[in-house]
Design brief:
The complex is a heterodimer of chains A (105) and B (222).
Chain A: E1 3-8, H1 10-19, E2 22-25, H2 29-41, E3 44-50, H3 51-56, H4 58-62, E4 71-75, H5 84-97
Parallel strand pairs in A: 1-2, 1-3, 3-4
Chain B: H1 10-72, H2 75-81, E1 89-98, E2 101-110, H3 128-213, H4 215-221
Antiparallel strand pairs in B: 1-2
Chain lengths: 105, 222
């Protein structure tokens, strides 16, 4: 049985706790990276992470890209949408096709 | 182009021919795999993008609702209200094989069946804005899960496509031309060897006949 986790600053993620997701409020990048690894090796299949935090630990997130689990998904935080999530989708198109032919406009 | 060392023997020739036929077959198969992966990826990534925009909009409005809820009541009461969640979600993960790429399929289960268990607080001290906020977030959760599934599948397929494309290119531009060049080199070398053996035999035959019959001397005398 797997669980879902949410990582990010407290204000952005506290709502998810009521839905039954496990929330882990972190703001420090080093701490977040450590937490991410801990969650990934535990029974978490989906980890939502705020775009703001994800931008600081991009390198760590990259490591999990080729594994089936966990799925690390960026979500916008309370301080607005940085466009990082859409950027991620665009990046995978670029990786597959060679250039972004779908969403370039 | 025989830059690599190949010994011009028949055995090597058969080996190279076999290598070429395997490479050609592999190339065709991998090309098919790449095309099919690409087709599926295109569909998936479009859905992915749509879903992402929807989820992002949903979360944004939920966040706005939470900010409003927070403004309407004191921080302590809010914290207390959200401190002990009643509901818990679990995930059932299964695999789906798409062209040899294992993609995850998530199915979520809640600890209690009651959909009202997301409100883990008494309604007396909290504002109704909080209920709306929680509700709006709960509504977006199923979409978020589908997004997780799709986005992961996209990432996995993208890296698989990249790998397959590299393999196809390596076969097409390196392995196959190399094998063809080697085959050509060996056949030419073998032909050349055969001709030189033929000539040598003719020469030897001439010499032996000369030895036996002394044609040249007879010719001189005549």
């Amino acid at each position: 049985m797997y669980k879902m986790a949410v990582l990010g600053d407290y204000d952005s993620i506290y709502g998810f706790a009521t839905l039954g997701l496990d929330t882990f409020p972190v703001t420090d990048p080093a701490e977040a990276a450590k937490e991410l690894h801990r969650l990934a090796s535990n029974e978490y299949a989906v980890i939502y992470i705020t775009e703001h935090l994800a931008a600081q630990i991009e390198h760590e997130i990259e490591k999990f890209k080729e594994q089936m689990l966990p799925a690390i998904i960026l979500i916008p935080g309370v301080y607005g949408n940085t466009g990082k999530g859409v950027e991620g989708v665009r990046k995978s198109v670029e990786q597959a096709v060679g250039s972004d032919i779908l969403f370039s406009n | 182009m025989a830059s690599t060392q190949v010994t011009p023997t028949r055995m090597e020739l058969t080996r190279q021919k076999r290598k070429l036929s395997t490479a050609t077959r592999g190339h065709k198969l991998l090309k098919d795999k790449r095309d099919e992966l690409m087709r599926q990826f295109m569909d998936l990534v479009r859905e992915n993008m749509e879903l992402r925009q929807k989820v992002e909009a949903g979360i944004k409005s939920a966040n706005t609702n939470f900010v409003i809820a927070k403004a309407g009541m004191s921080e302590e009461i809010l914290n207390v209200a959200l401190m002990a969640p009643k509901q818990e979600v679990y995930l059932e993960v299964s695999k789906k094989n798409v062209m040899s790429v294992d993609t995850p399929v998530f199915e979520y289960k809640t600890r209690t069946a009651d959909s009202n268990d997301i409100y883990a607080y008494g309604f007396a001290f909290t504002s109704s804005d909080l209920d709306d906020a929680v509700k709006s977030l709960a509504d977006i959760l199923p979409d978020m899960l589908v997004l997780a599934e799709k986005e992961k599948a996209c990432q996995l397929m993208a890296s698989e496509i990249e790998k397959t494309r590299r393999r196809v290119n390596a076969l097409e531009h390196v392995i196959i031309p190399q094998a063809q060049a080697n085959i050509k080199y060996i056949t030419m070398k073998l032909d050349e060897n055969e001709r030189s053996t033929q000539i040598r035999l003719m020469k030897v035959k001439d010499m032996m006949l000369e030895e036996a019959h002394h044609y040249k001397e007879k010719q001189k005398r005549a």
